[in-house]
Fold this sequence. Notes:
The chain crosses the membrane at residues 90-113, 119-137. Residues 1-24 are annotated as: Disordered. Keywords: Membrane, Transmembrane, Transmembrane helix. This protein is an alpha/beta fold. The protein contains 4 helices and 8 strands; from the N terminus they run αβββββααββαβ. The strands form 2 sheets. A 5-stranded mixed β-sheet has the order 6-7-2-1-8. A hairpin with a 4-residue loop joins strand 6 (147-151) and strand 7. The N and C termini lie far apart (63 Å). The relative contact order is 0.21.
Amino acid sequence: MVADPESTNPYASPQAEEQPGDAPAWDAWSDGQLVVTPPRSELPMRCWVCNAPATRRRALRKTGWLSLEGIVNISVEWHLCDAHHFRQRLLWVAAAVAVAVLAILGQALAGWMDFGPGIVMLGYLMIGGAFAALSWATRHWAGRQATVAQASPHRVTLKGAGPAFLESLKRQQ
């Protein structure tokens, strides 16, 4: 009588039952309106703005960030959903078109009216107003960019995350 070779082989790999794994533990957490993470990390694959499943990866890389504790190299990857990625790209195109239209309008006004330096100031005010409007639109419609608030060799504090993404991260105790 021959025994089953799998049960008698002392060198066989151990057999374990399949068990669902725990949710991944991220090193990032929220602290009020800020995200705290190690200097080299990848944030969860969720949209930075709305916490929807993300499809687009963005990287924030700063080389030689000077802090009180020394020079820090930052490499944090964050993510966007398709909707917020499209909105941010659309706003860059809108900014270029707005500046071109204002430049053409300023030239036309300068040619039609002879106000001298006054028309130049009006053009600057129009361009400044366009950038203020685009800044507001970027913040409220397209979502925010990840920016560094503080950095040390052990942690980086980022600002600009949406409330839903902040809520999904574990809170600092």
